[in-house]
Amino acid sequence: MIYFDNSATTVPYPEALRTYQEVATKIFGNPSSLHQLGTSATRILEASRKQVADLIGKSADEIFFTSGGTEGDNWVIKGVAFEKEPYGKHIIVSDIEHPAVKESAKWLSEHGFEVSYAPVNEQGFVDVEALAGLLRPDTILVSVMAVNNEIGSIQPIQAISDILADEPTISFHVDAVQAIGKIPVSAYLTDRVDFATFSGHKFHAVRGVGFVYKKAGKKITPLLTGGGQEKDFRSTTENVAGIASMAKALRLVTDKEAFSLPKIAKMKKIIFDELAKYEDITIFSGEGEDFAPNILTFGIKGVRGEVIVHAFEEHQIYISTTSACSSKAGKPAGTLISMGVPTKLAQTAVRISLDDDNDMGQVEQFLTIFKQVYAKTQKVR
């Protein structure tokens, strides 16, 4: 079995699973309880918070645990809008954001807010000048992802930060779900970023846990009210075992970056160079430092992406049709449409997303099977 769908989810590290099991079975108390089991759970919770903060270069009081990227995006987009509503009702998101951001923005537009969408160029990068032109006196929030989940384009967060440097009243949110463990933290957590969202299962933690970075002093309205956990910002009993597992996974993936990322980039290049030899294959992801090292999206002319996915599945090779959160809807990749790719061509797109768990032998096997799959498509087109 070859798993090339790591942008959809990753296999939990064995160490992270062991941490989860140990905490879940031995330190199962509610952190809000006053007895020893509760205080032990609190110690694990806060130690995990500090570890996560240290690994991304922030303070522990700036880290808030969630159930994952979708909750985090919803909280920041809606929470900032609600908090700043007295000062303005205009927000800006890029046209290639994950549905968790775009649907949150759409919801706000149905509840009295105005949303502007910053366009991207033909390579899938936000047009910084166009975004700057959208800024208004009543703009309260800008949200741009760090790494695009469909083609891997690394967005110009520093350039946007520079534009917003003179706009202190505008909150800046970065969806960093696809970035952590794939590009340097400094590339997306600039000093100007006020909020960032992360999801544990994208970096080998268990599902159902994530975190939000909230810069100290920045205000946001909570979405969940109740018992006052997470400093009154997210009321619900904390998933201590999941949080501890996530902290462990983040430490492991961070420790491996120095040697894992060059390895992943090399595997991508080998596949890229082979696919580039075919005239009727369109490669939507680029090479080099402007693209994440793990994501490669391509299409075979005249063949829908789901056909290719299932053809590889017959050989126990697992890839996807771009975003896992949208693929079952049968829609073409929204990022490609925003880039100006014709709908019919966008419908051919499939995504390979690599990880340190993969190796060169798997790459060679993938390319061998690819030749067989490609040959079959020639017969039916």
From TrEMBL:
- Per UniProt, residues of the Aminotransferase class V domain are 2-366
Listed A to Z, the keywords are: Aminotransferase, Iron, Iron-sulfur, Metal-binding, Pyridoxal phosphate, Transferase
- Which family is this sequence assigned to? Belongs to the class-V pyridoxal-phosphate-dependent aminotransferase family. NifS/IscS subfamily.
User: What InterPro entries does its record include?
Assistant: Aminotrans_V_dom, Aminotrans_V_PyrdxlP_BS, Cysteine_dSase, PyrdxlP-dep_Trfase, PyrdxlP-dep_Trfase_major, PyrdxlP-dep_Trfase_small
Q: What is this protein called?
A: Aminotransferase V
Gene Ontology MF terms: cysteine desulfurase activity; iron-sulfur cluster binding; metal ion binding; transaminase activity
Does the record's keyword annotation contain Membrane? no
Record's Gene3D superfamilies? 1.10.260.50, Aspartate Aminotransferase, domain 1, Type I PLP-dependent aspartate aminotransferase-like (Major domain)
PANTHER family for the chain: CYSTEINE DESULFURASE ISCS 2-RELATED, CYSTEINE DESULFURYLASE FAMILY MEMBER
